[in-house]
Amino acid sequence: MKNIIFIALIILPCMLQAQQSWKPWGVAEAGLLFGSYEGSGDLRLQGGMKKGSWLLGAGAGTDGYRLNSIPVYAQVRKMMGRKNMKPFVMGSFGANFAGKINPPFEDLSFVTMLARPDLLVAPESTYRTGTYFDIGAGLAFRTHKKFGFNLSLSYTRKTQTEDISQSIFNGTGGIEPATNSNKFMMNRYAVRIGMQL
After folding, report:
1. pLDDT beneath 50, residues of the chain
2. Fewest CB atoms less than 10 Å from the CB: which of 13, 52, 77, 139?
3. Nearest alpha-carbon partner for 140 in 92, 194, 190
4. How many helices (H) and strands (E) does the chain have?
5. Is 174 helix (H, G, I), strand (E, B) or coil?
6. Of 167, 163, 193, 160, which Cα lies nearest the Cα of 181?
7. Other Cβ atoms within 10 Å of 38 Cβ, number
8. How close are the terminal C-alpha atoms of the chain, in Å?
9. Closest to 161 in 3D by CA, of 67, 44, 93
10. How far apart are CA 36 and CA 188, in angstroms?
């Protein structure tokens, strides 16, 4: 009899878990980013499928911190509690694509030529895809049967590599191409508010 009860206690939760079906979810968020550079904002839209207290999905957004970029990422959320106010933890990891970035030199003006006589043409910047990482926690408020609001605080990092190509005089009358690379690693904190479906 003890063995039957023991087996029932193991099998029953598995059966109840199997009966829960996957359902769609979505969250639209707006946030403030602050770190060692001037503060900025971001907008994110993510969604996917949920089963029980686990939410799995993907998202994309716009990130204006220091360099404009477009993060695209996978996300997992774990909700805790069963009431209308649920704490949660979340993690995101993905790629960070360069957005529209103003070039450092619009043209080679006379003043620029005097300051940098080694430049033959204006430098050109290209940006490589970097990484995006976000981990945090928050509180979800269910204000209606079909939607609610989120408030979260997270630590986030994005990276971006800039390649600067230019042609310079080599001092002997010749012209040589030169490329310099700058890798940016931007660590920030984010406070976000969002609406969850």
Report:
1. 8, 12, 15-16, 106
2. 13
3. 194
4. 2, 9
5. coil
6. 163
7. 10
8. 46
9. 67
10. 8
